[in-house]
């Protein structure tokens, strides 16, 4: 089975987030999975670089109408013309997602993925709290752990946190 793992995070990010994203991309490629991302800079470019340098395939779901706006590490660039609405495509196309840092765009992808009952693993990203919500996102402390957790959840066929999200 080929896994499709999304990596989501900010176009602007810290050096630490870029290093983590590159490691996540590499781990995805080493497991033979396909990386899906927003295709631009920051976390997306770093993850793409890690995957491509490890021999992997990277699909970039771009917000604009031009393939040229994608980062240079994409194997496949898909222009959508949808702007931030492309986040729904990323969440839908991935079997699981790893969220690294990020702002409100990343938060929207997390929310969309959870609504679609996709596993989302957090790596130094948003913490979800709400009355009646017991766990929030499963959090990883390393790139390898994040990818391992994502693949484990996909392989087990588990939906992300069914009990804490009864209204999905």
Could you write a compact summary of the structure shown?
With about 170 residues, the chain is an alpha/beta fold.
Could you tell me how far the N terminus lies from the C terminus, measured between alpha carbons in angstroms?
Answer: 27 Å
Q: Using only CA atoms, what is the Rg?
A: 14 Å
Strand order of the largest sheet: 4-3-2-1-5-6
Largest sheet: 6 strands, parallel
Helix/strand class: alpha/beta
Molecular structure report:
This protein is an alpha/beta fold and 168 residues long. 36% of the residues lie in helices and 17% in strands. The chain is built from 5 helices and 6 strands. The chain has a 6-stranded parallel beta sheet with strand order 4-3-2-1-5-6, sandwiched between helices. The chain starts with a strand and ends in a 13-residue tail after the last helix. The model is unreliable at 159-168 (pLDDT under 50).
Write the layout of secondary structure elements.
Layout: E1 4-9, H1 15-30, E2 34-37, H2 43-53, E3 57-62, E4 76-79, H3 86-93, E5 96-100, H4 104-115, E6 120-123, H5 143-155
Parallel strand pairs: 1-2, 1-5, 2-3, 3-4, 5-6
Task: Please name the defining characteristics of this protein.
168 residues, six-stranded parallel sheet, 5 helices
């Amino acid at each position: 089975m080929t896994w499709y793992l999304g990596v989501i995070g900010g176009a602007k990010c810290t050096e630490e987030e870029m290093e983590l994203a590159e490691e996540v991309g590499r781990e995805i490629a080493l497991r033979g999975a396909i990386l899906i991302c927003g295709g631009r800079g920051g976390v997306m470019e770093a993850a793409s670089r890690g995957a491509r340098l490890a021999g992997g395939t990277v699909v970039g779901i771009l917000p604009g109408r031009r393939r040229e706006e994608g980062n240079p590490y994409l194997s496949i660039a898909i222009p959508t013309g949808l702007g931030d609405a492309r986040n729904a495509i990323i969440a839908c196309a991935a079997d699981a997602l790893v969220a690294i840092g990020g702002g409100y765009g990343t938060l929207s992808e997390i929310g969309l993925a959870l609504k679609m009952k996709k596993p989302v693993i957090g790596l130094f990203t948003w913490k979800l709290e709400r009355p009646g919500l017991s766990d929030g996102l499963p959090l990883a402390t390393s790139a390898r752990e994040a990818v391992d957790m994502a693949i484990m959840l996909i392989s087990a066929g588990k939906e992300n946190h069914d009990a804490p999200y009864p209204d999905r």
